[in-house]
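so im writing up the methods section and need the HMG box domain-containing protein record in one place, dumping it here so i stop losing it
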Amino acid sequence: MAKATSSKTIKAATKTAKEKPAKVDKEPRAPTPWMLFCQKNRAAWKQANPDAKGNEWMKALAGQWKDSPENPNRGKEPKSKKKSRTTLDVVAKDAASSSPPASSPRDEFASSDF
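--- predicted struct ---
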């Protein structure tokens, strides 16, 4: 006959199952050259352009970053981005490549023949 389990053992087992394992302490990543460049130049740009909106400062910093001596990829051509197919491109291509639909057999006969 099986031994009856008490509510204490069930609670203890549930509690240990719910406990999270101890996290391993990781060292934070070193900041990238881009992050350091942004930290250094963002405040100065915002002071010079206090009325600028949202992402305007990012666009300006990206333009400065392209030719910055801090940029490890300076002088290289930017990587090309894959062109995404928009819905209009797909529809236009499909419409141009498809042939007209085949006529159905009903179209060949007069309605009185059926």
